[in-house]
Amino acid sequence: MIEGEPHRGVFGSTTRLTGPLVLPSSLVSYAKLGFSGTTGTIVLPPKVDHVPEFVFEGSGCTQVDFHEGIIEIKGAAFRNSSLSGELVLPPNLKYIAGEAFLNTKISKIIFPESLRVLGESHIFANCVYLTGTLELPKVARIPRNCFENCKNI
Description:
Layout: E1 21-22, E2 39-43, E3 50-51, E4 60-65, E5 72-73, E6 84-88, E7 95-96, E8 105-110, E9 117-118
Parallel strand pairs: 1-2, 2-4, 3-5, 5-7, 6-8, 7-9
């Protein structure tokens, strides 16, 4: 487990990591706001089955490499981060919580067929670069304001 002070993250508030962040394969959990000071690509470890709330909030990370074992993305996990371009969600993902990708720069989302639940509101709100058609194959309900201010979809 990697832990940090809740308001400072794992590396403290003044650290700016650059380049890919490859988390150790032995890692099973990590702290809230743990990696808010990172940039570049994030490679999630194979033993972690969810992305915790707030863990990459406000980070400079531009891409995330999800593995097939990720089944849940918790609230505000990537909120206000620099995620950009195409977002390919993991193939076994079942749940995305509220504000998970709020205010990011993603331009396209590939949803897996395994996705069943979109949690609370504003999951992809204010993603102003998001364009095209969204295909949500087996989602039963799209919550209130899920795509608010995404004017190009």
